[in-house]
Structures are given as C-alpha cells and as structure tokens.
Design a protein that fits this description.
Length: 102
C-alpha cells in the first residue's frame, strides 16, 4: 500500500492493479490466462498473492497459540473486535460504489 498509488489501496507489487480488482476478476470466473492477457505485467504468483492477502485478512484470530488467552479474556475480546472492525472496513471498501467494474 502506498498513498500515491490507487489512493492507498492494497495493490499488486506497487503496480496500479488494486488487489480487490484482481480478486473480483477471479470471482467473476475470469481465468488466470485471461487476466494475464488483459494485464501482462501480472504474473501467476501475483494472482496467488492476491488470494493469500484476502485469506490473511479474513482469517480468524488463532487464540489456541496461547492457552492463557481464551475466549473469555478481555485481551482476546479486544483483539477480536479490532480484527472484526478491520475486516468490516476492508469489505466495505470493496463494495463501495465506484470500486467495482460496471
């Protein structure tokens, strides 16, 4: 992410391809070959990186790493709330008018 590139949105390797756009193409059924033909700068690894980015953003907190930090602890609740707000903000930006292709 860089403030001068795509208004600070996450992009692929600093190119002007927002991650959400690549994910949207993939979700619409566009093949890897078609995406790479449309955007020759993108590599197969870039498409996998977009999927990994989305998975990491949506992955739930792993509270099993620390036995003392269970679902009832205040710290776990605060961390989960922060994660939920970040996910909500991320998903909201994906679906704002003007961000999806027409």
């Amino acid at each position: 992410m860089h403030p001068a590139i795509c208004q600070g949105q996450p992009t692929v390797r600093g190119l002007r391809y927002p991650v959400w756009q690549v994910l949207d193409w993939m979700a619409s059924g566009m093949s890897e070959a078609a995406i790479r033909a449309k955007c020759p700068e993108l590599e197969a690894e870039d498409l996998r990186a977009c999927l990994a980015f989305a998975a990491a953003r949506l992955k739930p907190l792993d509270y099993s790493q620390n036995d003392s930090q269970n679902e009832k602890s205040d710290e776990w609740v605060r961390n989960r709330q922060r994660q939920w707000l970040a996910e909500r903000s991320f998903l909201k930006r994906l679906w704002e008018p003007g961000h999806l292709p027409t």
